[in-house]
């Protein structure tokens, strides 16, 4: 593993690079930490150049601000990493908020992507009017305003299936706790307001795949993936496990991602496992 810092528009982005082969950039969601993907990156390093990073304002990166997070800036950060570290093009994987950033990036900077895997983007605005899950971000924001990061963090964990059934690495957990106020106070509005650019995503010149975990059927952060796939006319796949299966069982998750990424890059045959 090689670590370095990338200078990006007022921030220094800590990133890690493993392996060799086609470039695979992995974007984290809440907490924005490269450490979520350390195990998966090690598993995939025999076939891909895997790039992970701490998003702007999180963990070992700088650029924290009191201004609400701008998804376009997050997408520009990811584009800059690809241009600087990956030779200008990469397959992108994003989980949760990282999937939202990946979808934003695909719409704004299509020339740097060879493909996109958007895993469980919590894009609740695509759900039907009146759906109770559309209030998730507003409910969490109110809880943060009333009880601060500890209260919001506890409730957030309770809404995420599988959390509490396995142990996070100690260093990752410590960094995440230091990112909670940034998450709920600064990044939350950006994720809450996201609406996919359907026209741009339909026109993307590379494969896009939406997906969700088998254990997350019906969850507020899984259901939007099916709707976005339907709207832009792309495949949907089911991954093993929970929202953060890549942290609970890196080998299992990496095996699924390896097969999908290889198929997407080769473009040999259709991606299977459409939603029922």
Automatic annotation (TrEMBL):
GO biological process: glycerolipid catabolic process
Pfam families for this protein: Abhydrolase_1 (PF00561)
Superkingdom of the source species: Bacteria
GO MF annotation list: triacylglycerol lipase activity
AB hydrolase-1 domain segment(s): 22-186
Transmembrane segments: none
InterPro entries: AB_hydrolase (IPR050471), AB_hydrolase_1 (IPR000073), AB_hydrolase_fold (IPR029058)
Keyword line: Hydrolase
Name of the featured protein: Alpha/beta fold hydrolase
Organism: Streptomyces spongiae
Lineage, top ranks: Bacteria, Bacillati, Actinomycetota, Actinomycetes, Kitasatosporales
